[in-house]
Automatic annotation (TrEMBL):
GO biological process, one term: chemical synaptic transmission
The protein, known as: Exocyst complex component Sec8
GO CC annotation, single: exocyst
Chain ranges of the Exocyst complex component Sec8 middle helical bundle domain: 246-296
Renumbered residue ranges of the record's region Disordered: 289-311
Chain segments annotated as coiled-coil in the UniProt record: 18-70
Protein family per UniProt: Belongs to the SEC8 family.
Pfam families: Sec8_C (PF20652), Sec8_N (PF04048)
Record keywords, A-Z: Coiled coil, Exocytosis, Protein transport, Transport
Domain Exocyst complex component Sec8 N-terminal, chain residue ranges per copy: 20-117
Provenance organism: Anseranas semipalmata (Magpie goose)
Keyword set includes Coiled coil: yes
The gene coding this protein: Exoc4
Amino acid sequence: VLRTLSTSDDVEDRETEKGRLEEAYEKCDRDLDELIVQHYTELTTAIRTYQSITERITNSRNKIKQVKENLLSCKMLLHCKRDELRKLWIEGIEHKHVLNLLDEIENIKQVPQKLEQCMASKHYLNATDMLVSAVDSLEGPLLQVEGLSDLRLELHSKKMNMHLVLIDELHRHLYIKSTNRVGQRNKEKGRISSLVKDASSVPLMDVTNLSTPRKFLETSQFSTPGSSSMRETSLLEIKEDMELDPEENSTVFMGILIKGLAKLKKIPETVKAIQDRLEQELKQIVKRSTTQVADNGYQRGENISQENQPR
């Protein structure tokens, strides 16, 4: 419109153009009014629909904004809860550890009494396991417990002297128990031979079938590698039955003693003690055997004299 008016040469052309434009404008208004009258219902519905849509969009934006704010606050609260839960979890672990330590302390307090019972019943392997584990606990996790200092010293001294008892038991079975069985077999044969009238026959000591420690060692020394490994496995698998007499099987009992000494880490001291006492123990065996032979001979002489003089 401005370009048309500015390009006009005179006022009349401008007025003419202006009138034409006003007429067209009025015609457009009339047409618009007619269209509004014709489509008033649809227009009103569209306007209302647009207004409701605008309101819903605005409400949705406000709700989303509120949700974002709530999510941020939840995130902050969850961070706080996570820290609190982690703290409670750590406290739970600490309490559980404290309870385990208290249970262990209660069990360790009963060790001296149980140890005396096991030593009295000669269940040395169980006693050794109990003593070693108790000393390890007292010198490890319970080292800072001042109330257990006396018990720690007591059990430590018992552990230091435990191998002496085991070595004495090992020597008793190694030298005394095995030779006592030979002596008992000899006495039985002596009683049988005393019933025979031939006094010239002397009872012999048949030790070929006895399971002596010497034969026990020889079977592993001169056996094949496969059987030797089986022998070592059986020694490692030796277990102590608390219901049975531990000295019933002398060979198994000596294996238990050696296993206990190994747990105490006193095998070198054991070997040295056996080497030091070997000559003395063998002399004692000869002395006991001589006494038994002399007693048997004296008894046979008494029996022969009584047969010759019935009164």
